[in-house]
TrEMBL record:
Location of the Inosine/uridine-preferring nucleoside hydrolase domain: 4-300
Keyword set, alphabetical order: Glycosidase, Hydrolase
Claim: Transferase is one of the keywords in the record: no
Signal peptide positions on this chain: none
Entry's Gene Ontology cellular component terms: cytosol
Source organism (scientific name): [Bacillus] enclensis
GO terms for biological process, alphabetical: purine nucleoside catabolic process
Name of this chain's protein: Purine nucleosidase
Amino acid sequence: MKKIILFADPGIDDSVAIMYALLNPEIKVLAIVSSYGNVTKEQATDNIAYLLKLAGREDVPIIGGTNAPSTGKPPTYYPEIHGKEGLGPIRPPEDLQAELTNFSELYTIIKNNPGLTIVDVGRNTSLAALFLLGENLIKDVSEFYIMGGAFLVPGNVTPLAEANFYGDPTASNLVMQNFDNLYIAPLNITNKAIITMEHVNTILDMTEHPLVQILDDVMEYYIEAYKKLIPGIGGAPLHDAVTLSLMVNPSMGKTIRREVEVFTGVSGMGTSSADFRVSSKNAEKNINIFLELDYEAFLEDFIEVMSGSGGQVP
């Protein structure tokens, strides 16, 4: 079983990733760090609390992450993709009590669970803060999985930059330069992790878990948003869920080991760069970029997790 701390900013794809993590019998979620990103930190916190309540997992602490990027610029939100509240048409109950645990609790969790995995599917600001405030502690972390970047493929915010790295390139570059045992799931493979309403309906036919019952409304909104962005797509990519799926099933993808830089200047801000020339040497650090994905294996894993033994009514 993988013990993980999940950094997220839900957002629809983050929310589906949280569902996947909570329902996967091979993952034990020790904490979820709530930060700005697709929505404000406050809204992200409410969304996480709502998902935990539906899952019957209110024992999982919600850690208060960062409110804004380290660049000092105000964050940009994407209501046209995720909805005003981040869950498409769904709004968490107004009487929901979402309590935040202090950021310092992360250090206690890491110390008490040596060899855990950290997964960051949002902006990297909170993860960078974890390093800056307690550099030695990341040595107790077995591996880091990050959704971010676009290598030799178009970005989704600018022609070259992916949203997470673009949202705080300073933090992302700090992570690339200082972390080891790092696995990056970029747009190269996450764009291929497409889920259709047919897949969603298959899942809903197989489970009555209350957490999964919101999947149809959430994904219908998300898919419609993507159809406007990419006519003819037929579904929507689950950038964040596939990152978790790769963490559990690393053989589902193929990686290349390279040094990575994230551009922080005005020109090309948020662009992720690596040397893919045949003559280039492997990275000194263990930085691995997923460049290939077995889509059918991902699809099978996603449907099994969302509707299988982990998806029974609690």
